[in-house]
Design brief:
The complex is a heterodimer of chains A (about 80) and B (about 525). Chain A has one domain. Helices cover about 20% and strands about 50% of the residues of chain A. Chain A is globular and about 30 Å long. Chain A is α+β, with helices and mostly antiparallel strands and about 80 residues long. Chain B has about 525 residues and is an all-alpha fold. Chain B folds into five domains: about 140 residues, no CATH class; about 70 residues, no CATH class; about 80 residues; about 90 residues, no CATH class; about 90 residues. The termini of chain B are far apart. The relative contact order of chain B is 0.04. Classes of the chains: A alpha+beta (about 80), B mainly alpha (about 525).
């Protein structure tokens, strides 16, 4: 058994944080719904008034770039 | 006398005075011809050619009519009364859309049709309205069809197709316009008997006039709209003026306006009306976007993590499946493809079947596991093969992609089995790592069935031992742990018998190799 970090997103669903990376001084996390592995998403962490908040990636280019970085980071899984 | 002229005038008489045909003999007509037409000073100015081309038609018709008016007064009056009655009946129907010549021709044709079956006394006592209306519709249809076939012949020959495409001319509208113009202006004789060249020229001229008038002039209409809206609202930026102009131009054209009517001063109110419509709509969209943004900000959630215990295999499964799924999206675009839909469906089908299995009792599940698992895998593999094939066709999904998904499913099944073990017997599930590893390797070697059988037997055996434990030195937990160890050893033995190479990998498991 292992400990994992989970987060409840705005839709009320619990996601597990399965990976993270820093890109352009921003920290991004890869989240996956434990009950449905097909449901996954990326959020970036923004700091406001010293508090950390999760926000969506509105820019498609940013999304694709970060997704690509996550895949590069974990490419061993596919080989 | 020229025979051709003779035949022409006889034909004209038959066409223009059909109402007399029943009441007059051919010899009498010829007499009229010689005495009243050829001897007339008014006809002598026309050459034979002119007459044959129809240029003297009006004079000839007038001379024949004069003859009947003076020499056959009773017949002429009866005929005139009938014609007037017909005119009264069809006047409203015709709605002034025919030239005088064509209107007269239609009246004559209706009159001739009635005279064939009734005499003037009967007809002039009134009535016959319904019959007159039917005859009118027949005549109208005949004329329209005749004209339309001629119009199409000329337009197809003379008008370049780019007119319809580049100049925005609607072919049907053009044909309709030429038809109405001809009905309204043409000389019937010219249409039916006259000079074909002249008739064709008339059609072409009318068509050209329409094309010039209705040709699309986007630049003109755009600049007019631009000026109008800039005058209406001088706070608009250049970009906004261009935006609204395009929208307004489209809206006006969709509502039946053409370039000419758009630039028409009297239609400025229409431009302004549409301007305010689009301005309001744009503001609404802007407000909606801002609201959405504000809501999104409010939705922003705090980054608060919780801890949760899961099996190692679960996290490995989540990571691989998530990345694989996302890799798929990245590679093939965010939009769902057909293959992607099918893949989701295959997975859903599998999960439903798997969930049903979990609901059953432990023993039953294991008894059925082999068959059910096999069936599910076949279903899944078939589905994947199908969409893999489909995917290859569209270049969306390779067989490798499909294979990776199947592997993920195997892990899911293993995970489900191990959960069962833990739930029912509390076995230390860290062992799942070893079992899972071996299971997959053995499955790759094609000994899945043997493995499953072993698995089921060992679990059954130790469940029995644990439940019937009478050895005071051992707890139930000890029994189960023994069972687990035995299972691992059995798998290892089985594994060894299949592959020495894989055995080496197995030996390293306990030395810290991580998934």
């Amino acid at each position: 058994m292992v400990d994992i970090d989970t987060i409840v997103l705005e839709n009320g669903v619990e996601y597990t944080e399965i990976d993270d990376l820093i890109h352009n001084d921003t920290r991004y996390i890869l989240l996956s719904n434990i009950k449905n592995v097909k449901d996954s998403c990326i959020r970036k962490i923004e700091i406001e008034d010293g508090e950390e908040y999760l926000s969506k990636l509105e820019d498609d280019n940013e999304y694709e770039r970060v997704l690509d970085l996550f895949l590069q980071k974990n490419k061993a899984l596919f080989n | 006398m020229n025979k051709k002229v003779n035949d022409y005038i006889l034909k004209l008489f038959a066409e223009r005075f059909p109402q007399y045909n029943k009441n007059i003999k051919r010899s009498e007509i010829l007499e009229i011809l010689y005495n009243n037409i050829y001897n007339s000073e008014r006809i002598k100015i026309y050459s034979v050619d002119d007459v044959l081309k129809g240029h003297a038609d009006k004079i000839i018709i007038k001379l024949i009519d004069d003859y009947f008016r003076s020499e056959k007064k009773e017949l002429w009056e009866a005929s005139e009364n009938l014609k007037n009655h017909i005119k009264r009946v069809i006047y409203d129907l015709s709605d002034g859309s025919f030239s005088k010549d064509i209107f007269e021709y239609i009246v004559n044709q209706i009159s001739a049709s009635l005279i064939k079956f009734y005499n003037y006394n009967e007809l002039n006592n009134g009535g016959f309205e319904d019959r007159i209306k039917i005859l009118y519709e027949d005549q109208k249809k005949f004329l329209e069809e005749l004209l339309l076939s001629n119009i199409r012949r000329v337009l197809n020959k003379e008008i370049d197709s780019h007119v319809y495409v580049n100049d925005g001319i609607n072919q049907m509208e053009l044909e309709k316009y030429v038809l109405l113009q001809l009905l309204n202006t043409a000389n019937y004789n010219l249409i039916v008997n006259g000079d074909n060249n002249q008739f064709d020229k008339d059609i072409l001229n009318i068509a050209k006039e329409y094309i010039v008038k209705n040709k699309r002039k986007p630049v003109d209409s755009h600049s007019h709209i631009m000026k109008t809206i800039a005058k209406e609202d001088n706070s608009l930026s250049e970009q906004e003026v261009v935006y609204y102009t395009k929208r307004i131009d489209e809206a006006l054209r969709l509502n039946g306006f053409n370039s000419n009517s758009i630039v028409d001063k009297k239609n400025e109110s229409e431009i302004i009306k549409w301007f305010y419509y689009f301005k309001q709509r744009r503001l609404s969209i802007k407000e909606k976007r801002e609201k959405e943004k504000a809501e999104q900000k409010a939705e922003k959630i705090k980054y608060e993590k919780r801890k949760r215990m899961v099996y190692k295999s679960t996290i490995a499964l989540i990571l691989s499946a998530t990345l694989l799924g996302m890799g798929f999206l990245l590679k093939h675009g965010i939009d769902n493809t057909i293959a992607h839909f099918r893949e989701r469906r295959a997975l859903k089908d599998y999960k439903t079947a798997s969930a049903q299995m979990n609901e059953e009792k432990y023993g039953q599940v294991f008894t059925k596991y082999s068959d059910q698992y096999q069936k599910n895998m076949e279903l899944t593999v078939n589905n994947y093969r199908n969409f893999s094939k489909l995917g290859e066709t569209y270049g969306y999904l390779s067989f490798y992609d499909a294979y990776m998904h199947i592997s993920a499913d195997k892990l899911a099944i293993m995970d489900s089995m191990l959960s069962d073990i833990q739930d029912k017997y509390g076995i230390d599930v860290d062992a799942d790592y070893y079992i899972e590893f071996m299971y997959n390797r053995l499955a790759e070697l094609g000994c899945e069935d043997v493995l499953q059988e072993k698995y089921i037997n060992v679990i059954r055996e130790y469940r029995f031992v644990a439940l019937n434990n009478d050895d005071e030195t051992k707890t139930t937990w000890d029994c189960l742990n023994e069972g687990q160890k035995k299972l691992i050893n059995e798998i290892a033995d089985l594994y060894k018998s299949y592959s020495s190479e894989y055995y080496k990998q197995f030996s390293n498991i306990g030395k810290g190799r991580k998934l």
